[in-house]
Amino acid sequence: MTAPPDGTVTRFVARDADELRACLPGVEFEVLPLRPGRFESTLTTLRLGDIALQLGRSDPFMAFAAIGTGTAVLQLPLENAEGLILNSRRCGPRTFCAYGAGAEMMRSHRRPSAHAALFLPADDCERLLAPPPRLGLFRPRSDILLRARPEQWKQTGALMTQISKTAGTTPDALAGAEARRA
Questions:
Q1: What predicted TM-score, i.e. pTM, was given to this entire model?
Q2: How many Å apart are CA 27 and CA 104, to the nearest integer?
Q3: Which residues, 6 or more positions from 154, have their beta carbon under 8 angstroms from its beta carbon?
Q4: Nearest alpha carbon to residue 119 among 29, 63, 47, 12
Q5: How many whole angstroms separate alpha carbon 97 and alpha carbon 114?
Q6: pLDDT in tens, 116-174
Q7: How far apart are CA 152 and CA 174, in angstroms?
Q8: Is 38 exposed, middle or buried (0-12, 13-18, 19+ CB in 10 A)?
Q9: pLDDT value at position 16?
Q10: CB atoms within 10 A of CB 162
């Protein structure tokens, strides 16, 4: 699968773990379902230039990902975060993870889950997101797990939920020039 064109919203449903390999921009991805039988993962990607916002919903799986050298990723577990393990660390409510270019991610989730992931050019992520310098987010080959304040998490979760609903019902509202103005 090639990257979707700029200003587009794509929805992809994988019914086989191998189908997920090419769905994450700038990431090599291997998936192992944790339950026998049926597996399904739905990914909705909004692409604006070199930036991609991906919203996903998946059956339980274990995965290994290698972030490309030109990409940084901000991952936000949106549902069932308490069962998620990222790089041997158990997540909890309001946790998110920042991955620098070249970082590796090991993920395991025993329950169905939902997430949002923001894929950014590694050279621009600090400028685009403006995190406090003391956090050291997005250093090459590194990852950091953080916990957001309740009010920030509530706002972010509401925004991701609204984007997901809009993408599912009227994806054209998120595409092209209109999305750039937002």
A1: 0.84
A2: 9
A3: none
A4: 47
A5: 14
A6: 999 999 988 888 888 877 787 888 999 999 888 999 989 988 888 888 778 767 766 66
A7: 23
A8: exposed
A9: 81
A10: 10
